[in-house]
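Last lecture ended with a question: if I hand you only a sequence, what can you say about the shape of the protein? Today we answer it with a concrete record. The protein is serine-type D-Ala-D-Ala carboxypeptidase. Below, first the input exactly as provided, then the predicted structure, then a couple of comments.
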Amino acid sequence: MLKRRATLVVTSLVFCASHAFAQDDALPFSLAPPTIDAASWVLMDAKTGQILTSGNPDEQRNPASLTKLMTGYVVDRAIDQKRITRDDKVTVGQDAWGAGNPSFKGSSLMFLKPGDVLTVRDLSRGVIIDSGNDACVALADYVAGSQENFVGLMNQYVEKLGLKNTHFETVHGLDAPGQHSTARDLAILSRAIIDGEPDFYQMYSEKTLSWNGITQNNRNGLLWDNSLHVDGLKTGHTETAGYNIIASNVVGNHRLIAVIMGGKSSKGREEQARKLLVWGQNNFDTVQLFHAGRALGNETVWYGSPHTVAVGSDKDLYLSLPKNEINNVKAKYVIDNKELVAPLAANQKIGEIQVVDKDQLLASYPLVALQQVEEAGIFTRAIDYIKRKF
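The predicted structure:
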């Protein structure tokens, strides 16, 4: 038998904070999304991980230079693990020399030369800003000893991040049999990068980079649109992939991630990403539903000391909602059992928090006891026994 409790008004709990609680799928609202001219696409709320709109989000496609997002992610994890530092000096090898590698002909380069010495930070900027295939190889050799070993690390992180339709064969994204990803997976990877160290993510907003007397512009043209507030992430293109872009913008505390795969042109992919970001910012907001450790109510605990327990969430919980629906959203909690009986452990799940809009269930989260409740003494337990029986 389920024990229901009073409805809570969600809008009175809205608050801006720093941690996300992921939701995987779009909520059932009837907002009409923009028409997107691309093979596949996703618009994700970066705080919650919710997909706000999508088209063919799980279609496996050639990621092209979007592969470099994983290259940068692996490098950043090596820094976090203190295996390398951003200031380490790297000597460029022959295999990272564009002029000496036929597969690099006509592709994006930082224009490194064998024997060049530069820092991990500068090579990372070459990967992100110049989309340098040579910089990817130099970093792979330094971090893992070879491109093959580095690709192994990339695919390990594919597993750790739960990217269900992604596999890498190269460190740079040039066409290779068996290499593929999806708009959904690349949005998840982008979210992990944004949630990483801020100084590493800052590189994705840099517009130009000069090396060996050559200055190149970031190929993400949306960075120059001051009204859109885009600060990353990456573009990619090959003949088989079409024109890809991942763009993230933030307005106030509301951050979105737009992924376009298989666009028709360089400008076209930017226009499609722009449509997604503008639609998302105009129509949605991210609200905090509940605060970790804040009581939503108090419940009697039979045979307990104390005799009541505060209940709530052990996590900060967020949801992305249409702006015109926020005032309609409410929450209630449901206790799993008819009565709570001691002992209870702190953060023990005892029920479910349900978020509803006009009686339609939007999301559910664990309801927990916010503190430990031990068994009371024999006298209190005896009184409780009599009360329950009679």
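Comments.
1. The chain has two domains: 3-17+291-389, 40-283.
2. Residues 26 and 51 are 5 Å apart (CA to CA).
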